[in-house]
Amino acid sequence: MLADLLFFSCRQQGPLLPSSGPFSCTKDTHPLAFTIRNLSVLAYANGFTLWHYQAASDLLDQVGRPGFFDNVDGMLAAGDIVMVSATDGARILCIGGRAEGSVTAHLLA
């Protein structure tokens, strides 16, 4: 099950001055699945990190989807291994190419 996080997208119309024009906000609900406190380092050597991610109530397919680890793109490096434990099993992912703000994880087992 995914928890919902409430975001407000706010934008001022006109110049960025406090009294220069109307200010509007819209409410958006985004699914929040990744939880950084569930990501742990198991081992580190020579630039390689072995990670464990406890997926709590998330399913394996949710953890493996593109963009799941984007929030920690500065922590994960290409070639790192992530062992995932979820409610419906376990799997091993390899971190592939990284672009700014985007992490690709490939299924190993």
Written overview of the protein:
The protein is mainly beta. The chain has one domain. It is built from one helix and seven strands. The strands form two sheets. A five-stranded mixed β-sheet has the order 3-4-5-6-7, with no helix packed on it. 15% of the residues are buried.
In percent terms, what proportion of residues is strand?
over 45%
Strand order of the largest sheet: 3-4-5-6-7
Low-confidence stretches: 1-12, 26-30
Taken in chain order, the helices and strands follow as: EEEEHEEE
Based on Cα principal axes, name the global outline. globular
Task: Indicate the percent of residues in helices.
Answer: under 10%
Distance between the termini: 23 Å
Number of domains: 1
Please summarize the sheet with the most strands.
5 strands, mixed
Q: From the alpha-carbon coordinates, what is the Rg to the nearest angstrom?
A: 18 Å
Instruction: Label the structural class.
Output: mainly beta
Q: What's the number of extended β-strand segments?
A: 7
